[in-house]
Design goal:
798 residues, Methylamine Dehydrogenase, Chain H, 4-stranded antiparallel beta sheet, 13 helices, elongated, repeat, WD40_repeat_dom_sf, Ribosome biogenesis protein ERB1, nucleus, WD40_rpt
Length: 798
């Protein structure tokens, strides 16, 4: 039985011919040669029997090395294999060996049969070691194969894991993580405290990343090139060297050397475009056959019912007026679509040289905004039409053209050819509005420092002024001569001067410090009867003051007097000051009532708002404070010329109070930051407001609480404003050193608005520091005005 098994396993081995390739049969058959020695030439005569085994022999050999021998036949086979591999038998001469020409049967082959050995390669060396397995049998362990240059395994990774795509999680229960190419187990790398202690004891090697290779479980080491690629990727840079993210534009049709290249092809037309299609011929023939057989009727006859319907429609036919859309003559109902203007020389690809822009024009066009450009392109010159590049604004132009057609009006409207100049109000010529002051005829000099206030007497013959020097001076406006003068204080300035509005008396009220002085000028200013009448008016109040009862507090004590009326010293009386009014505040504004018995004083600098405004009665020597609590800081005030109303101006509001009913009548919102002065029209229906924010506001009291007009003609703050009592004139004074004269016509008709025309700018005052013209007043009858400046001069304008 043993002979039969051995005979089945063995095969006839044919020794190759000398001229054939020695390694070809070994590779094709997949056999392992016998022991070959390169120790010396003396061993060339040694020969080993080479017997071939297929895969089944190798499997049997592996199984035999692991199994325990159980029969004599198996022991015989192992002995034959052992003799074949070890080559420890006697050497037979080459002449007695079996050649390749003679075929032997497999049953005759044994370990004693001589076989011609294969030619030996001197470069072959022993590449295995012999060891003993668990059963005591010899085991051959072959070393690693060193591949040559032409081998396919020259690029194979050394020591790689051969588990393929199998996850490493499958090996968690085993001490190894896979197998190498020789079938050896790859041990699991160290982890935990052993690895930490090892890393702490050594330096971080070059290429260390802290990552783990999923195939081997060992730390992943990267080369410098790979680390550089990762660094560039994390910085969003191009990982490859030599890559340009911004290459130069390739001008395919207009670039250098590409002018003649066109996108069209010059290849001849194919023949199939000229030969009729056989498929279409079949389709047509099928349709012709169907028509001949009657299955398709191209011209179906009209039925009687359809004919009757057509005749009925003809009786009541309707026509579509828009069916014919051909161009028609201009008609009010026909609105043609807007047409594009024909192209000019600028749009030509080869325009004349005078239409081409130079460098400065091109630069100016590029720096302009797209909305400010007169055209969307610049003319450019091209040698030929095929060299013209694509138009960048093509899509935008077409889109705007579609919008023009889509939004084209469908209703014809008659256009109004209106001249813009006709929309402006027709203002009269300033030459037609005379008289108004145009020239400075007189300059009154004598004050030391700034002149703060001015006032004309009711007759218009004299003008009084007060300044920082504490003097009150009376001037003749026609000659500029000083007629009378009195010094009220050497330390305090004269803040306000006002003549009593009565021609039968000659009284001047002047505010200096906290005292109001009542003056009667001497010399030719006042006639004897006028002087006597003036003294009676000033002295009438002392008798009333003695009989008047004083008010008391809740505890029964007398309230302190709000003011004190007294006579000045004899020296002051001789000089013309006959009465003084002492206040607890510093008044800076003094305004008389039209009846000449009442006047008001305003103290803007006081902290107590209840005493900022006071109304005084001259005939009774009585002082009243009408406001217990005033909203805002009072700036100025005046009386209505015809109604019992009192107008108070704070910094940002104008309030009109009814003195009889003692209530707020109206509140104006001028919208100013700081009001400086007000002036009421003689009719009482219009109010002028000057502000420190360089605006002059006109309020119509019968319309609303917002300004009717806002005039801005000054570059600095406006200090004063004044209406003329009889003529349609008003003027304002500003810190820029100028006076602006306006024509302001006010009519009684409420349907007609007031007319405001600027007439003249009067210049002459010198700006001192930041102050220019501080006050302006009008002559009672003539078109004259007098201005007071910070330069210490008083100028008369006629």
């Amino acid at each position: 039985m043993a002979q039969q098994r051995a005979g089945q396993k063995r095969k006839v081995v044919e020794v190759p011919r000398p001229e054939a390739d020695e390694s070809e049969d070994e590779i094709v058959e997949g056999l392992i040669n016998g022991e070959l020695s390169d120790e010396g030439e003396s061993e060339e005569g040694d020969s080993d029997s080479v017997e071939g085994f297929d895969e089944e022999d190798e499997d049997d050999d592996d199984l035999a090395s692991d199994e325990i021998p159980s029969s004599d036949d198996e022991e015989d086979v192992r002995q034959q294999l052992r003799d074949l591999k070890t080559g420890g038998r006697e050497i037979t001469p080459d002449t007695k060996l079996m050649g390749s020409e003679t075929g032997k049967e497999v049953s005759l082959l044994s370990h004693e049969t001589a076989v011609r050995p294969l030619p030996r390669d001197r470069s072959d060396q022993q590449n295995y070691t012999i060891s003993t397995d668990a059963n005591g049998n010899p085991r051959f362990i072959y070393g690693e194969i060193d591949p040559v240059y032409d081998s396919d395994d020259s690029d194979a990774p050394a020591g790689g894991n051969t588990i393929g795509d199998i996850p490493l999680s499958y090996y968690e229960a085993y001490p190894h993580i896979g197998y190498d190419i020789n079938g050896r187990k790859i041990a699991r790398p160290a982890k935990g405290e052993a690895l930490d202690s090892l890393l702490d004891s050594i330096d971080i090697p070059e290429g260390w990343t802290g990552l783990t290779d999923p195939a081997t479980g060992q730390p992943l080491k990267l080369s410098k090139q790979e680390l550089e690629v990762l660094r560039k990727i994390t910085r969003s840079e191009v990982p490859g060297d030599g890559y340009d993210p911004y290459p130069d534009m390739v001008e395919w049709f207009t670039g250098k050397g590409m002018e003649e290249v066109m996108p069209l092809s010059a290849a001849p037309e194919p023949k199939r475009r000229f030969v009729p299609s056989a498929h279409e011929h079949k389709r047509v023939m099928k349709m012709v056959k169907a028509i001949k057989e009657g299955r398709i009727k191209p011209y179906q006859p009209i039925s009687e019912e359809d004919r009757e319907k057509a005749e009925a429609l003809l009786e009541y036919a309707s026509y579509d007026v828009w069916a014919n859309e051909q161009a028609q003559a201009d008609h009010p109902m026909n609105i043609p679509a807007p047409k594009l203007p024909p192209p000019g020389y600028e749009e030509s690809y080869h325009p004349p040289p005078e239409y081409l822009p130079d460098k400065n024009e091109r630069k100016a066009w590029e720096e302009q905004d797209e909305e400010d450009r007169d055209r969307d392109f610049l003319p450019s010159d091209h040698g030929a039409l095929r060299k013209v590049p694509g138009y960048a604004q093509f899509v935008k132009d077409k889109f705007e053209r579609c919008l023009d057609l889509y939004l084209a009006p469908r209703v014809r409207r008659s256009k109004l050819n209106i001249d813009p100049e006709s929309l402006l109000p027709k203002l009269p010529d300033p030459a037609e509005l005379k008289p108004f002051p145009t020239t400075c005829t007189t300059i009154c000099r004598g004050h030391e420092g700034r002149v703060r206030t001015l006032s004309f007497d009711p007759t218009g013959r004299w003008v009084a002024s007060g300044g920082d020097d504490g003097n009150v001076r009376v001037w003749d406006p026609s000659t500029g001569r000083q007629v009378w003068q009195i010094r009220l204080s050497r330390e305090e300035a004269v803040n306000a001067v006002a003549w009593r509005p009565s021609e039968d008396t000659c009284i001047i009220a002047a505010c200096c410090g906290e005292t109001v002085h009542f003056l009667i000028p001497k010399n030719e200013l006042c006639a004897p009867d006028t002087e006597a009448r003036s003294q009676e008016v000033l002295s009438a109040g002392f008798g009333y003051a003695t009989s008047a009862t004083t008010s008391k507090t809740a505890s029964g004590q007398d309230k302190p007097a709000a003011s004190t009326w007294s006579r000045p010293s004899a020296q002051m009386q001789d000089r013309g000051c006959l009465l003084t009014l002492s206040l607890h505040t510093t008044p800076k504004i003094l305004t008389w009532h039209r009846r000449a018995d009442y006047f008001t004083t305003i103290s803007p600098s006081t902290n107590a708002t209840s005493t900022a405004i006071a109304i005084h009665t001259l005939s009774k020597h009585l002082t009243q404070h009408p406001f217990k609590r005033l909203k805002g800081l009072a700036q100025t005030a005046c009386f209505h010329p015809t109604k019992p109303q009192f107008i108070v101006a704070t910094r940002q509001r104008i309030r009109i109070y009814d003195l009889q009913q003692q209530k707020l009548e109206k509140e104006l919102l001028p919208g100013a930051r700081w009001i400086s002065d007000i002036s009421l029209h003689p009719s009482g229906t219009h109010l002028l407001i000057s502000t420190y924010d360089k605006r002059l506001l006109w309020h119509d009291l019968e319309l609303g609480n917002t300004p009717y007009k806002t005039l801005r003609y000054h570059s600095r703050a406006i200090r004063s404003v004044a209406f003329h009592e009889r003529l349609p004139l008003f003027a304002d004074a500003s810190d820029d050193g100028t006076l602006q004269v306006f024509h302001g016509k006010v009519v009684r008709d409420s349907l007609e608005n007031a007319t405001v025309v600027p007439l003249k700018v009067l210049r002459g005052h010198r700006v001192t520091g930041v102050l220019g013209v501080l006050g302006v007043v009008w002559h009672p009858r003539e078109a004259w005005c007098v201005s007071a400046g910070a330069d210490g001069g008083v100028r008369v304008w006629t």
